[in-house]
Q: What sequence folds into this?
């Protein structure tokens, strides 16, 4: 379990970071993410030498309704739209000290999302960042080999995004098999 003490030195050293108490995670701006990561690997700063997991999370835009009271005492409901975002979440551990996880997040807008690659700091991030790129469309600046990992090169879209719409038929499948192949043989289209 994460001790609150693990994140406090990061907040002091990097004032642009913030602590999300509900998610128990550090929110780190992409422009300083690599500097924060390198700082965390130092023995004096927690010696976080292992990144066990990197994943993406998609948040769609949402409307938030808030009730306010006017000067005359009447209530009014105001609606504001909170923009969507894509988050890249890293779980960090110190194997030597047996501490962690310290959760670190980079938040990017859904349109043209960009995050800093932490692969130069933790080698274990390489394939996991490629997976987030492939399935969510987050571009990792400074990644040594950013290309599709699970989907083929001609695949369009990012299938783990919440607004992803599957094609009406599966002819885009390079080699139809199983149920898809059987339905094509019978002349039926999957919808």
A:
């Amino acid at each position: 379990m994460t001790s609150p003490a693990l994140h406090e030195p990061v907040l002091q050293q990097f004032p642009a970071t913030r602590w999300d108490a509900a998610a128990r995670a550090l929110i780190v701006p992409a422009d300083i993410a690599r500097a924060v990561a390198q700082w965390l690997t130092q023995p004096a700063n927690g010696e976080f030498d292992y990144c066990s997991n990197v994943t993406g999370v998609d948040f769609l835009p949402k409307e938030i309704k808030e009730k306010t009271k006017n000067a005359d005492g009447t209530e009014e409901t105001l609606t504001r739209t909170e923009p969507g975002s894509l988050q890249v979440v890293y779980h960090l551990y110190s194997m030597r000290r047996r501490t962690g996880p310290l959760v670190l997040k980079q938040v990017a807008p859904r349109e043209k999302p960009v995050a800093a690659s932490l692969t130069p700091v933790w080698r274990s991030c390489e394939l996991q960042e490629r997976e987030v790129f492939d399935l969510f469309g987050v571009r990792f600046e400074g990644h040594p080999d950013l290309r599709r990992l699970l989907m083929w090169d001609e695949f369009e879209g990012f299938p783990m995004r919440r607004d992803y719409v599957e094609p009406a038929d599966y002819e885009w499948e390079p080699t139809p098999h199983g149920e898809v192949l059987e339905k094509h043989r019978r002349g039926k289209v999957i919808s």
